[in-house]
Amino acid sequence: MIFVPLSTLAFDTLPREATAEAAGLFNLMRTIGRSIGISVIATMLTRRTQHHWDMLGGYINPFKPDLHSWLSAHGLPLNDPLTAQQLAGELNRQAGMRAFVDAFWLVTWSFIVMTPLVWFLKRPAPAANSSRGTLTGH
After folding, report:
1. How far apart are CA 5 and CA 12, in angstroms?
2. How confident is the model at residue 126 (pLDDT cuts 50, 70, 90)?
3. Contact indicator for 66, 59 with CB cutoff of 8 Å
4. Cα–Cα dist 86/91, whole Å
5. Residue-wise pLDDT tens digits, 68-112
6. Which is more confident, 28 or 1?
7. Which of 7, 19, 49, 83 is most buried by its number of CB atoms within 10 A?
């Protein structure tokens, strides 16, 4: 939904003889942007997972009645080593889910912030005798 209209707008404003160089530059910038975006999201997922792990881990306390009700609902005794493993797995799952929600919010807000940039795009001038877009090319 983004790259096809963006590339159409980018190439419609160029002369036909510059499209090969423009395509190479466009793909290079798209690849660099994608790499930076993936790096930012991966870093954010790692940091936010650790943040949520630390935050949620504070609720696992043997003096809290919620822990005992969760353990009894799952049939786990507090002093069993498998209980700690189950709790760590659940903590990891919940922290990861919260980190993904944070990452999706970042992507959502970045799209919202970038939406007004559409108004700065130039419309291509309509050409009366343009052969661009025809099948015959005459």
Report:
1. 10
2. low
3. yes
4. 8
5. 898 899 888 988 889 999 999 999 999 999 999 999 999 999 989
6. 28
7. 49
Count CB neighbours of 62 within 10 A. 9
The amino acid at 65: P
The pair of three-digit structure tokens given for residue 2, joined into one six-digit string: 């983004």
Instruction: Supply 131's token pair.
Output: 């052969």
Residue-range domain boundaries for the chain: 3-120
**23-56 confidence digits (pLDDT tens):** 898 889 989 999 999 999 999 999 999 999 999 9
Length of the chain: 138
What is the sign of the dihedral through the CA atoms of 54, 58, 61 and 66?
negative
75 contacts 86 by C-beta, under 8 angstroms: no
pLDDT at 125: 66
Which amino acid does the sequence have at 107? V
The closest of 34, 8, 24 to 123, measured between CA atoms, is 8
Using CA atoms, how far residue 19 sits from 6, 80, 107, in Å, is 14, 67, 31
**3-state class of 64 per DSSP?**
coil
